Amino acid sequence: MTNEGLTYAAAGVDTEAGDRAVELMKDAVRRTQGPAVLGGVGGFAGLYDFSAVQKYRRPLLATSTDGVGTKVAIAQALDIHDTIGFDLVGMVVDDIVVVGAEPLFMTDYIACGKVVPERIADVVRGIAAACEVAGTALVGGETAEHPGLLGVDEYDVAGAATGVVEADDLLGPERVRAGDVLIGLAASGLHSNGFSLVRAVINHAGWGLEREVEEFGRTLGEELLTPTRVYASDCLALARDEAAQVHAYTHVTGGGLAANLARVLPQGLVATVDRASWEVPAVFQVVRELGGVPRTDLENTLNLGVGMVAVVGADGVDAALARCAALGLPAWVLGQVDELADDADRSGLVAGTKGVTAGAVRLVNDYR
């Protein structure tokens, strides 16, 4: 009989592996950190010099937190982990940009069954690369090993970000008026929502991730793992262009286009979205056909190619489209905003989503 007691390592937690992961990722993290970040990697708390707030008359802090959802299962199945960070940053930071806030810094959290340093470092490198695109400092994070709760190859990621906006520049329903125009900003693909539906469809069809799909010009797995487009810098540039007259943004995530657009409209207004104004990318069509998914379910779950919507003044449309073109961001006129008459037909309207009492959205016509 041995007198040796149980150790943390014997329980399945390898603290040395965590330290190795930090060594592998720290250069990528540092590249996101400008002079406003103090202390560097490894502190108990990330420090950010907020003295620049003095230039604001009435600074409002904006904050958001989110995860990636079951898209991580695709990354794990393919053993590709350096793109999932774009999904995390996009889901978190672009919610802040919706109100016109500049995202200042972000933190991340990774829970895993076993710390594999190279894998964790790949995830964080992706987060850092996406933060560079967004102009956001990655000031800290945490990796937690949960043996017995998660499998050795399983992990989940989450993050939180903080930004700031001048109160006078706040975007949202208060700025939206009848006559405003909707501009769709193209998605890069599925982004990070609806993967429970997507995975159920491909499992039902018996398709493997390695399957070459003619419509995609690549494998199914490569298509599904396409990183979320990070809009932050482009949307801020568009909002700062006075000629574009940006009044509001909506980030098309869980719930689809109509449900999220309704959240940024004031009561009494209705946004009419013309389905015929864009061509739905192939991945959404494949999901629909493989699973026989009803159109309503698709629209209530997936972005269908529209990742963000800008609501702009009617006189700002040309300037907004020109700015998007200069930024290399595909954009088009998606619809318009009108008053909702008291006697209007309310069938087919989407309203009252996410617990918000706001405007309404109607989708019309058929997709191309």
TrEMBL record:
It comes from the Bacteria. Pathway: Purine metabolism; IMP biosynthesis via de novo pathway; 5-amino-1-(5-phospho-D-ribosyl)imidazole from N(2)-formyl-N(1)-(5-phospho-D-ribosyl)glycinamide: step 2/2. It is an enzyme of class 6 (ligase). It catalyses: 2-formamido-N(1)-(5-O-phospho-beta-D-ribosyl)acetamidine + ATP = 5-amino-1-(5-phospho-beta-D-ribosyl)imidazole + ADP + phosphate + H(+). InterPro entries: PurM-like_C_dom (IPR010918), PurM-like_C_sf (IPR036676), PurM-like_N (IPR016188), PurM-like_N_sf (IPR036921), PurM_cligase (IPR004733). Keywords: ATP-binding, Cytoplasm, Ligase, Nucleotide-binding, Purine biosynthesis. GO terms for molecular function: ATP binding; phosphoribosylamine-glycine ligase activity; phosphoribosylformylglycinamidine cyclo-ligase activity. Residues 177-339 form the PurM-like C-terminal domain. One of its GO terms (biological process) is 'de novo' IMP biosynthetic process. Its EC number is 6.3.3.1. Residues 60-165 form the PurM-like N-terminal domain. It is found in: Cytoplasm. CDD domains: PurM. It holds the Pfam family AIRS_C. GO terms for cellular component: cytosol. Belongs to the AIR synthase family. This is Phosphoribosylformylglycinamidine cyclo-ligase. It comes from Sediminihabitans luteus.
